[in-house]
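User: Show me sequence and structure for the first protein, then do the same for the second.

Assistant: Starting with the first protein.
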Amino acid sequence: MGAEAGDVEAGGRLAVEGVDLHYGAAIALRGVSIGVQAGAVTCLLGRNGVGKTSLLRAITGAHPVTRGRILWEGADITRLPTYARAQRGIAWVPQGRDIFPLLTVRENLETGFAVLPRAQRRVDDEIFDLFPVLRSMLRRRGGDLSGGQQQQLAIARALVMRPRLLVLDEPTEGIQPSIIKDIGRVIALLRSRGGMAILLVEQYYDFARELADRLAVMDRGDIVLSGAPGTLDEAEVRRRLSV
C-alpha cells in the first residue's frame, strides 16, 4: 500500500501514509495507507466497527492521528484543522447526513458557502440538475424531507463547496432503492468529469463494485485487501463483509 500512496502523492491527490488513530487507549487505525486519485472512485468496504469512519475522520481532520501523515495535492495536511482542509477543497458527507433540520433546503445548501470566497458564494443550477427534487423544496425545512431526500441534500451541500475531494460515508444507508440509483448516477457523473477524487465508504458490495475504480477492504483497523474490482476474489471480499 505504501507504493500506492506515493503514486497518488506524485499525482497531486490524496495519500494516507501509515496512519494510526486512537480513541484514548483504544486503537482504531493501525498503519493505514491508501491513495485516492482524481477522476476515480475509491470505495472503502468493511463490517461495522473496523475503522472506516475513523479513517474518514482522520482525512477530514475531525480526529487527530497518532502517527503517519496525510498528503493532499502534494501538501502535508496532517495537522490542519477541519475548516482549513475544507478550504483546500475537501468536502465530507458524514454518516447520518447531519443536515440542519430547522433550516430550509436553501439555507442548508448555503451553509456550504462558508469555505468559499465571496465571489463564488452561489448555488449553481447544476446542483438542481443533479438532484431535481431539491429545486421544488427550497423553502421546506430540512427536517421535513424524507431520509433519501435528506441524503441528496447532504451531498448537494457538499457539492456547493466545489470540492476536489468528495468523501462520502455510507450514502446508501437506509435509503430506498430508487434514490440509491440516483446517488450512484451522480457519483458516476462526477467521476466521469475527471477533476474530482471520490472516496466512498460502503457496506453494500454490489453498489461499490459497480461504481469503484478501486476497492479497499478494512478489518480490525487496517486495509487487508486492495485492488481493482476485477482483480479481487469476490468470495473473499464478501466473506470479510459478512457479520
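Switching to the second protein now.
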Amino acid sequence: MGVRGAMSELKQYFRFPFQDRESRSRFALGCALMLAGYIIPILPGLLVYGYALQILRRSAQGEAPSMPVWEDWPGLLSLGFRGTLVQLVFTLPALAVFLVGFGAYFGALIPLSIASSPDASVSDPAILGFLAAMLILMLSIVLGSVLLVLGLLPLPASVAHFAAQDRLEAAFRIRDWWRILSSNWLGYFVAFVVVSGLFGIAYWAFMILYSTLVLLCVGFVVIVPAGVYTLLVGAALFGEAYREGAESLEA
C-alpha cells in the first residue's frame, strides 16, 4: 500500500471483518474453526489460513477488503496447506538450528542425571558436556532468532505472489516477487507495522488475562478472535501492497 493508501484507506481494512451482519457471522465462523483447533489439530487452522489467503488474493486483484462466503472447502484446505508449506520452507533453517540446540541440551541432561544419581559421582566429562550443550543452546537461540527474522521478512511477499498466481512454485521465484516488493517497499512496511501492532496488542491482552487466575480461561478464548482478526487484516493489507507494487512495476 502506498503513501496515499496508508494515510486515507486504513480504516476500511480495520473495519471490513465487522462491516455488516454477514461479515460478522463469517468472522465468527472463522473463530469457531480456530477454537475447534483445540480439539481437532491442524485441519481447522489450514481452513482459516486458506480463507485468509483468499482475501489476500482478492485484495491483490484490486477488490475492496471484504469477507467472502465460506465455500469450496477443499479449495480453502488446499490453499492453506500450500501456504503453510511456503512458511515452512522459509522458516526451516531457523527451526533446524533451534532443534540442534535443544537436542544438544536435552541430550547432555541424560549423562549428567546418570552421573548425579546416588550410586554414582558427578564426573568432570558430564559437567563439561553439559556446559558445552548450554553454550550450543545459547548460540542456537541467537542464530535461530536471526534466521527466523530473515525468513519472516520476505515471507508476506512470497506468500502474496503464490496466492495471486495460485501456483506453489511462484512463491520461490524470488526475483519476480522481490521486484514487486522493492517497487512498493513502503506499502509492505506499513502492513508490517499494522500487523505487528495488532499482534502486540493481542499478545499483551492475553498476558494480562493469563496473569490472573480468575481470567486465565478467558485469555485462551480472547486470543482466538484477536488472532483471526490480525490474520485477516494482514492478508488484506499485504494483498493491497502486492497489487500496488505490481502496478507500479508495470508502469
